Amino acid sequence: MKLNDFDFYLPEELIAQEPLKERDMSRLMVLHKDTGLVEHKIFKDILDYLNPGDCLVLNNTRVMPARLYGFKEDTGAKIEILLLKRIEKDRWEVLVKPGKKVKEGSTIVFGNGELKAKTISRTDEGGRVVEFIYSGIFEEVLDKLGEMPLPHYIKKKLVDKESYQTVYSKVEGSAAAPTAGLHFTKELLSKIKNKGVNIAYVTLHVGLGTFRPVKEENIEEHHMHSEFYTIDEDTAEMINKTRLANKRIITVGTTSTRTLETAADDKGFIKAQSGWTDIYIYPGYKFKIVDCLITNFHLPKSSLIMLVSALAGREKILAAYQEAIKNRYRFYSFGDAMLII
If we measure between CA atoms, which residue out of 317, 305, 23 comes closest to residue 164? Predict the structure, then answer.
């Protein structure tokens, strides 16, 4: 398939700039993937579409305050760093801006010198490997000096850091939020559980590669960046029991989807495991374990719109997106939600 097959025009004013005060009051488009039927609801109505015995799978990763502003120790030039993933101990893969000023051996200073980053090498994608130098606990230093890494299309400054975290976030390590989960409240999750729906948690630390537009004209030539995931024994057991009972696996977000599809065997069962995934899902992919998906509205030409097109069909997705634009849905990270059922 060609890249332009996943393009569409989105008016800029539909890109949500801030979260709603009440998370579960966002709009919800329900897309029936077999028929293409579209329903317009409110997110808290999701309860009506979940059945006892279903398994709802959430990604409990927590976003790091991963954007740091500093200066080069020798010249004073201003440098911005974005943490992508920990390689080992204090060595991280990062993005730097402006990159041409940061060569191997450069040292960048943050704050009043509480944190420094020495550049070790370049990455194949144009980033850097740095080693951080600090006193105390790295996470505490980062929390003091770092900012939330909001996507470039969000121009408004974030007032409350927690509004870019899911209410169930637990394991810190992401460079971006698993945004489909932002619509849930603790009260809604409690109602879902009381209905007899099983709730399982996986961890996938989201990297920025997930959100980058695909540039290859032949989409099959695109390569995903790898991201670290973990599935524990309780989650594997709960998901496998759901499969054996012929109930549905409903993932919240493309990150949970990619985690399960990476871990599932050919019969749709999983084992507890950790590892790196660069799974790339686009039309033609046969899902092994995921039945339904709760997701946001994605960027054109992104691997994310290709993933949802693989589940529901490209034509149905693009038609649903046009319906969303016509009805003034809010798009992207802080936007409204879609249930593909």
Answer: 23
What are the CA-CA distances from residue 260 to residues 148, 243, 291 (Å)? 27, 13, 11
Whether pTM exceeds 0.85: yes
What ranges in 208-336 are assigned the alpha helix state H? 233-244, 254-263, 303-312, 314-326
Residue-wise pLDDT for 96-128, tens only, equals 999 888 999 999 999 999 999 999 999 987 899
Low-confidence ranges of the chain (pLDDT < 50): none
Residues contacting residue 94 through CB under 8 Å, at least 6 positions apart: 81, 82, 83, 84, 117, 127, 128, 129, 130
| φ, ψ (nearest 5 deg) of residue 33 | -70, -20
| Residues paired with residue 69 on neighbouring β-strands, in sequence order | 80
What's the confidence (pLDDT) of residue 332? 96
- Per DSSP bridges, beta strands 55-59 and 273-277 are unpaired
Map out the domains of the chain with their CATH numbers: 3-63+160-340 (3.40.1780.10), 67-145 (2.40.10.240)
Q: Residue 85 and residue 77: Cα distance in Å, rounded?
A: 24
Nearest to 239 by CA among 53, 73, 10: 53
